[in-house]
């Protein structure tokens, strides 16, 4: 319980630190949302001053930050400069899609990389090991945006198997058919996320497994005549889980950040695409809201990984 409270306190401290850095970085960026209005001859200085007063941008920077933080406590991220809609509702409409994409990709990367990494190590310097190593190196060196374009050209344009972009078909669908249609549109972007995420994980797991296979306790276990299944269950997997879960927790920011590129390419109305559009239009309230929510989800994921590690190794709590 004490450890859990420490983790919660750590999350709040990090969120406070991230909020300060993000706020200063956003307000230090060149140009602003009102820059285009200032160049418009039909927009008077008085009108621009009134708009800034509406959004509280006429106050000192420190006062703006404290007002913004007070609103965040009530999950009020302000009003969008572009749409005039509540930022929280704008983000919440797009958050589920991004979360589902990242959760599915993370689980798939974990399962596939665990299987392929162990298989490569158990077949060291054999054909299976060579093929898996080449696959992992190809995955590691492949940019996600380039692979996304290749997938669209091959699977959508040439083979016409999957939709090119979007989240729904033109024909309106309801119920289970709508879920199937959405899943069909998400196959390519999630496939890109999985393939790009496999490379480093396979290499890491293969390396860890090879170290286990060279260890004295594994050699002793083999000498006792244990089957490969028992060796895998009682000696390999228990020693692989802690470092893998730690790495997965650290990979969360990269997965969420990658959604910005993929959602923009595939035209998916998720949080990543909203962040990209807002960055282009200097929509500060939405940018800040997405940054804080992403930071919170990342810290929450890392805390969950730490709790899983504690469950796997209870002696960590005594350290």
Please provide a written account of the structure.
The chain has helices at residues 2-28, 35-39, 45-54, 61-73, 87-122, 127-141, 144-158, 176-213, 216-223, 228-250, 252-266, 271-281, 284-312. With 319 residues, it is an all-alpha fold. It has two domains: 2-73, no CATH class; 94-318, MetI-like fold, CATH 1.10.3720.10. Helix 5 runs antiparallel to helix 6 and helix 6 packs across helix 8 (176-213). It is globular and about 85 Å long. The two termini are 16 Å apart. The model is unreliable at 315-319 (pLDDT under 50).
Features:
319 residues, mainly alpha, MetI-like fold, 13 helices, 77% helix
Alpha carbon gyration radius: 24 Å
Task: Count up the helices.
Answer: 13
- Named at the architecture level, the CATH assignment of the largest domain is Orthogonal Bundle
CATH class of the largest domain: Mainly Alpha
- Which percent range fits the helix content? over 70%
Order of helices and strands: HHHHHHHHHHHHH
Short description:
The chain is mainly α and 319 residues long. 77% of the residues lie in helices and 0% in strands. The chain contains 13 helices and no strands.
Question: What is the element layout, followed by pairings?
Answer:
Elements: H1 2-28, H2 35-39, H3 45-54, H4 61-73, H5 87-122, H6 127-141, H7 144-158, H8 176-213, H9 216-223, H10 228-250, H11 252-266, H12 271-281, H13 284-312
Helix pairs in contact: 1-13, 5-6, 5-8, 5-11, 5-13, 6-8, 7-8, 7-11, 8-10, 8-11, 10-13, 11-12, 12-13
